[in-house]
Write a structure and sequence with these properties.
- This protein is an alpha/beta fold.
- It is built from twelve helices and eight strands.
- The chain has an eight-stranded parallel β-barrel, surrounded by nine helices.
- Strand 2, helix 3 and strand 3 form a beta-alpha-beta unit.
- Helix 2 runs parallel beside helix 3 and helix 9 crosses helix 10.
- The longest helix is centred in the middle third of the chain and has 17 residues.
- The termini are far apart.
């Protein structure tokens, strides 16, 4: 399945700010496109909380089929904000890089694990479906990663686990290895994969995650997101469907119009040489190639 993060990641993209009504338009387009779930940062402001609340209301009224998943940080206060939107599911996000945790929060690995378990347990006790996203996964020691993931599932009760190539530095074969390893640790728990595109590998990384056994991939339309962006929904969907033969639920005929809408609202035009939706995808300017067809 595809978990689309356009609504949240766009707001973390430099020089992009979507109005509430624009987010609603994008959510409707994503629903028509066929993504399984969408994500918004309910905790970021009162406006974002109200947008999330409206999306949940639309879902409950049957105006949206797509699942609405607020993202929050690892605090009970953030979980309470998500509960106030009426959402029945949540994505709790926190770095699992122990050196970053020590620098930012001045806590050790044991305290990190305890806090994650506590907040996930709190969300579960309030009836929420919980995806626990541990980001910067590829820079965490394997032994520590195994301990934390087992704790948040078997002690905290997380329903899904999401790992993340936050710095975009994972090579595809490394992703296959790590996702497979996580599946061996948590054989009954669905695995999700998030990632960024700092080294131009995001689409390949998502394909590798699926090859390794991931059930859900996180993507955004046109790859818009923090820094240079995320794996592009349209690219990942086409690669999975046409190259790997994996059904995504995406209506491929809706890709172009959805990408154009997001480009218009974010004021980030689609590059002519962009894979899948760029103008040059269906053009050629090479006489060396064209002459052979006559």
């Amino acid at each position: 399945y595809i978990h689309d993060v356009t609504l949240r990641e766009a707001m973390q993209s430099p020089r992009v700010c979507l109005r509430p009504e624009e987010k609603i338009r994008i959510a409707k387009a994503l629903d028509k496109l066929g993504v399984d779930s969408i994500e918004n940062g309910a905790y970021m402001s009162e406006i974002e909380k109200e947008v999330t609340k409206e999306l949940v209301k639309m879902q409950r009224n049957g105006e949206l089929r797509v699942k609405v998943t607020p993202l929050v940080h690892w605090t009970e206060q953030d979980v309470d904000i998500a509960l106030e939107t009426g959402a029945d599911r949540i994505l709790i996000s926190q770095t699992i890089n122990p050196w970053m945790v020590k620098t930012l929060y001045n806590i050790d690995e044991n305290e990190l694990t305890k806090r994650l378990v506590r907040v996930i347990s709190y969300a579960k006790s309030n009836g929420l479906f919980v995806t626990a996203q541990v980001y910067d996964t590829y820079r965490a020691p394997l032994e520590f990663l195994e301990r934390v993931l087992k704790s948040i599932v078997y002690e905290g009760g997380a329903d899904h686990v999401a790992i993340s190539d936050t710095r975009g530095c994972a090579l595809p074969w490394t992703v296959v290895y790590l996702v497979s390893k996580v599946k061996s640790w948590l054989p009954e728990t669905p695995i999700e994969h998030h990632g960024h595109n700092y080294y131009g590998l995001a689409t390949a990384v998502m394909a590798a995650a699926v090859a390794g056994g991931a059930e859900v991939v996180h993507t955004s339309i046109n790859g818009i997101g923090e820094g240079v962006g995320n794996a592009a929904t349209e690219e990942v969907a086409i690669v999975l469907e046409l190259l790997l033969g994996v059904k995504t639920g995406i209506d491929l005929k809706q890709i172009y119009s959805t990408c154009q809408l997001v480009a218009e609202l974010t004021k980030h035009p689609i590059a002519r040489n962009k894979p899948i939706t760029g103008e040059n995808m269906f053009l050629t300017g090479s006489g060396q190639v064209a002459w052979r067809h006559w």
